[in-house]
From TrEMBL:
InterPro entries per the UniProt record, alphabetical: BamD, BamD-like, TPR-like_helical_dom_sf
A GO term from the CC aspect: Bam protein complex
Membrane topology: Lipid-anchor
Entry's localization field: Cell outer membrane
Domain of life: Bacteria
Gene name tied to this protein: bamD
Region of interest (Disordered), ranges: 315-354
Domain Outer membrane lipoprotein BamD-like: 43-241
Protein name: Outer membrane protein assembly factor BamD
Keywords: Cell outer membrane, Lipoprotein, Membrane, Palmitate, Signal
Record's signal peptide: 1-20
General function of this protein: Part of the outer membrane protein assembly complex, which is involved in assembly and insertion of beta-barrel proteins into the outer membrane.
Organism: Acinetobacter ursingii
Length: 354
């Protein structure tokens, strides 16, 4: 029984395509063969330093990685690892920077500049928490996942405990203060959600965490008000009155004339229009006291153009924490290196006399 002509044509085309694909897949791929170092360790290091001075981070990374690969025990190996850590951070490869920092800490725990690796590890985890599109809106990252911020906080705690007199200790302490505010805002935001669903005990537990662990943050007044309100709803009038008395002494504006807690005075919610447009339009939310607490680093209000372009146009001037600097150069590495002369063996005085 013969096949129709169109079926024969389709069969021939299918066989032709299959043959072509098999032929392409059978072509041997060119293997990349590592021919070894093309320059000396000194040449690679000088190229890297020159590229770093010009902020050519891709070229610097190639030279530094070559030193790390071909001269792992060389004179410039440890300095190259620190420089590569700095390059990865500048390239916004924060995960790579964290991996390099942990590797350097593990291999060189007694290095005189190991504090730099501890510091950059914390800053990189901090940056990972904001490495998203949310940074271009007025929405708060603290209302989302803060797992990287928690890691960064622990990194800075470990760093300051080990190196309290480090040149990076002051900046690390400032970052810890900022992270505390973000973590406190995250906890109090969950407490607000629990209040809306009338989960009074869950809201009180979140607020209690803020009071106990972040007492110096601007979220403390709202946390105290939440505790007083939640325990009142739970029927514990005595405990609710204790927190109300604390509010009267420290934050009298949060207590109404009838003695009840005024939660709205502690928190100014963003408008519905602001939430619906992802923070582009409308009035944004604000926690009472935050503006005063961060007045040392003011930020200009964002224009409508800046909001509509997700922060790409008409950027306001921001006084952010200074970016990390390049790692210090180890003292044992000379600025101008030369091939060392052959050192003659020392002769014994008795041998010289003979």
């Amino acid at each position: 029984m013969s096949l129709p002509n169109y079926k024969i044509t389709m069969l021939a085309l299918s066989l032709g395509v299959a043959t072509a694909m098999v032929g392409c897949s059978s072509n041997p791929k060119k293997e990349v063969v590592d021919t070894g170092p093309k320059s000396s360790e000194l040449v690679y290091f000088e190229k890297a330093e020159k590229s770093l001075s010009r902020k050519q981070y891709s070229d610097a990374a190639k030279s530094l990685e070559a030193i790390d690969t071909y001269y792992p025990t060389g004179q410039y190996a440890q300095q190259a690892q620190l420089d590569l850590l700095y390059v990865k951070f500048q390239q916004k490869d924060y995960e790579g920077a964290i991996a390099l920092a942990e590797r350097f800490i593990r291999l060189n725990p007694q290095h005189p500049n190991v504090d730099y690796a501890y510091y950059v590890r914390g800053v990189s985890n901090m940056e990972l928490n904001y490495d998203s599109l949310l940074r271009y809106t007025s929405l708060q990252q603290s209302h989302r996942d803060v797992s990287y911020l928690k890691l960064a906080y622990q990194n800075f705690v470990d760093f300051i405990r080990r190196f309290p007199s480090s040149e990076y200790a002051v900046d690390a302490a400032q970052r810890m203060k900022y992270i505390q505010q973000e973590l406190a805002e995250n906890e109090i935001n969950v407490a607000r959600f629990n209040l809306k669903r009338q989960a009074w005990l869950a809201a009180a537990e979140r607020a209690q965490w803020v009071v106990e662990h972040y007492p110096q943050t601007p979220q403390t007044p709202e946390a105290l008000a939440t505790l007083a309100y939640a325990y009142d709803k739970l029927g514990d009038q005595e405990l609710s009155q204790q927190y109300t008395n604390v509010l009267k002494l420290n934050y009298p504006d949060l207590v109404k004339s009838n003695g009840k807690v005024d939660l709205r005075a502690a928190r100014h919610e963003g408008s519905w229009w602001n939430r619906a447009t992802l923070g582009i339009l409308g009035r944004g939310s604000k926690t009472s006291g935050v503006e005063e607490a961060t007045s040392d680093h003011p930020t200009e209000k964002r224009s409508l153009t800046n909001r509509l372009s997700f922060g790409l146009l008409d950027k306001p001037e921001q006084h952010e924490v200074a970016p990390i600097s390049a790692p210090p150069v180890q003292q044992t590495v000379p600025s101008i290196s030369v091939v060392p002369d052959t050192v003659a063996p020392q002769t014994n005085d008795d041998d010289a006399a003979n």
